[in-house]
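Thread: Modeling a multi-component assembly for a lab meeting

Hi all, long-time lurker, first post. My supervisor asked me to bring a structural picture of a complex we are working on to next week's group meeting, and I have zero experience with this. I have the sequence lines for every component (1005 residues in total). Could someone generate the structure of the whole assembly? Inputs are pasted exactly as I received them:
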Amino acid sequence: MDYQLTETQQEIVNIARELGEKKIKPVREHYDETEKFPWDVVEDIRKADLFGVYLPEAYGGLGGGNFELVIAAEQLARSCGGIALSALTSSLCALPILLYGSPDQRKKYLTGLATGEKLGAFCITEPASGSDATSMRARAVLDGDHWVLNGIKNFCSGGEVASTYVVFFSTNPARGNRGISAFIIEKGTPGFSFGKKEKKMGIRCNPTYELVFKDCRIPKENLLYKEGHGLFVAQGTFDLSRPGVGAQALGIAQGALDETLAYTRQRRQFGVPVSSFQAMQHMIADCATAIEASRALLYSVTRAMDRDLGPATEKAIKEGITVADAMKALGAKRWTKESAMVKVLCSDTAMKVTTDCVQMCGGIGYMRDFPVEKFMRDAKITQIYEGTNQVQRNEIGMAIIKEAAAGAVREAVAA
Amino acid sequence: MANTGSGVWVVAETRRGKLLPTAFELVTAAKSIASQRGETVTAVVLGAAEGAEGLASAGAAKVLLLEGLGEFADDACAAAIAAAAKAGAPRTILLSSGVFGRSVAPRLAVALNSGLGSDAVALELDAEKRLVVKRAAYAGNVTQKVLVKSQSGPELATVRPMAYPRSAVNGSHGTVEKVQGDVSAAKGRTRYASFAADASPELDIGAAEKIVSGGRGLGDPKGFELIRALAQAMGAAVGASRAAVDSGWIPYKHQVGITGRSVRPRLYMACGISGQIQHMGGMKSSDVIVAINTDADCPMMKAANYAVQGDLYKVIPALIDAIKQARG
Amino acid sequence: MPIKIAVCVKRTPASTSVAIDAAGKVQTKGLPHGINPFDEYAVEEALRLKEKLGGTVTVVSAGEAEAEEVIRAAIALGCDDGVLLSDPAFAGSDGSVTASVLAAALRKAEAKLVLFGKETTDGASGQMPAFTAAWLDWPSVIGVRKVAAASEGELTVERLMEDGVDTLTLSLPAVVGVIKEINEPRLPSLKGKMAAKKAPVTKWTAADLGLDAAKLGAAGSPTEVVGLEPVPARPAGLVIAGATPEEKAKALVEKLKEAKFI
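Re: Modeling a multi-component assembly
Sure thing. I ran the full set together rather than chain by chain. Output:
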């Protein structure tokens, strides 16, 4: 399917694909097995200029948007969903800073993230606070010119390896939803340490850590956006970041199908390649169709987002305001529903396709020295993080009912 | 100007005073051409070398020792052979197509205004008794026949090691002549500094009659201990696939295939090698192929004369025992 | 001291599974093509030498107009500019004649150090470095696995031989053929690729190089491909039977004994 990429976008795809083939494929099994962070591949991704494809040129990026991010992530994930995550976790740190950071914060933090010189991470989860962010216990208290952070955050993807963290704390527990604030914290700040490293089912090369804050003092200006607007920052970020998870899922699905096609064309039973059996062909057809449908939605939604994000970013840089405020000023809509749809469709596709791929490869597909079982393990997380697919469906359902209600009101007026 | 020379020369490579055995293969190749034209074979030996006189009793009517060359430098070797060829005017000159042949033959061709057919797996003559080189291209998927057209100089060809059997001592008595090599054309621009022999003196895969190779199926570097044990039992050289070399299990010089070296042994035993096209391109012209693999459907098992399906960690030890028993 | 380096590359089919057409020619039209994989090591080494010594790297390729793609691919990796040698008169040239064209271009480009890959994946003769050096009357060395020292005046290299490693010093100008072991080629960067689209690629014809058309092409070449045939697949072999590894081992050893390998 020809998605009419620009010359630059096609180069992003080519470079990410070549990097995946030459640098990621040979080492993916090793990093999955050892659960070590792939610093050498991160260096390759950095040298290829892929870290900043979606960030403004003013901060050392390529000047693309969310579309550029997802096509790069898709191709990297096609070789390994875990290694691709090392770039994606950074974007989950850069996006809130891009959207809600002050001009000074953008300049200070985005530059290193755009070049890949620094990695970023994002953490909102707590042991007792997952989908329900309002039950957050970690506290930030203002003390003169500093915020004092205390508490434990967990399941931080890219923890320990990242230099820059966007983390959420309650600044006013009494206000619940409106008492949460986002902060930018740098690794090495006294009082900020790493706790338990999780042992995971998939994406095993990407470290998932507990973040421990013990009287950690950060300068006042490290508050991201306004006090009490943390949940708003998180939601606005997820609106734009969920397609990244979609891209990761899509790449995983495509990569699993690539491997499966190569194997089933070569594997012979009853004297013929197993790909010549109709039962196999129907499964292949279903996988390929689901992948293409997911891709079509992912691409069209991110392209539509970029039509808002591009002008807003330009306006924000010119006027010295936040991108979020610029979007509001330009009357940009929220992308909650579509972004959730992308994530649900792509990640459900990934789980279905990778499961079918293991099935199509038979016994060998289940073995760890053949890559498809890893794709299946890696796929599962995409249905869970950045909001489970059940939470996504809540968002989609609510948005649709709201839209219908609004439409009904209009109809009544017209009548 | 037509080629007015006569006779077939073979360039016998030497390394540190030792004649390389490929010289005897070249004599066989040269005889096949010379006999059709009623010509004789001359072996040109680079430097006085142990065993060089043996060529005179293995089919070379004349052995020409080019002295004073020192160790192998491309331009000096080419200059000395070119000077000798201008004086001796052969019709054909053959070299072996290893690093030496690839380094020297093209320089010789330009110096002598000759055509060069490279990396022959067989030599033929056309109706006008001109040299035709049969060679492999496109990773061994295509056979080319290249006519070396006579210009003013001799026709040149490099011949792939192991393409011809080694000429045996046959009681013939050729003459031996010593000549001072003329390296003046090289202008002393290349200085040979030193040589470092391989740490473990193993059989070279390029010249080996038998090769035992290991690949990805070994699973880890220790697998090569087993491969070496089998190679030792067979009297074979140790080869490897690209996957094994890229994994750091064994040095690059063991790599067989288009990205390593093309080999043509009489027996090639592929253990845990599935047979990627690049690997097959470098060994599929071996006389006999044995494959040991768990996957009966992989290309190597399909290409093998003898395919053994099974876990190489079980099959190879059993094989070593069986070989020892067979040898008594 | 800065040095003018050139690296010679070829555009080759990405696959070696090629068909032979009715006219007896290898059919490569329509196949995906790219830079000859062995040339990537030469490009990488050229870039490393440039990073060490300063200077420039010029990519040189002889071929049809499409060869410009691989020149730009090398520029995307960090080479400075490119020269495409294209002329209908070059068509059908053999290795020696193609090398004479490269040599004329390298002289015109004032290159002082020329790098080549081990061989191409199509013709696979591996003789272009020595041919080119011969036409230039420069020293040459192939099979290079390491550049041990480099200066404006000379180059010390390690050459991988069948039995070990030679160390040689060549005075410049010189031609060097490298092997895979020498380095690990870098991948292109996005910014490099975008810049490469605008980089200067000069086109030279036989006339630009002052070459005599009579000494070019098929007619001017001292060798001629007179036959071309696909290599038949090896006939199916024997599957060694046996219930246990020991039985199979015994059966195989019997066969190897019959063939006098044991």
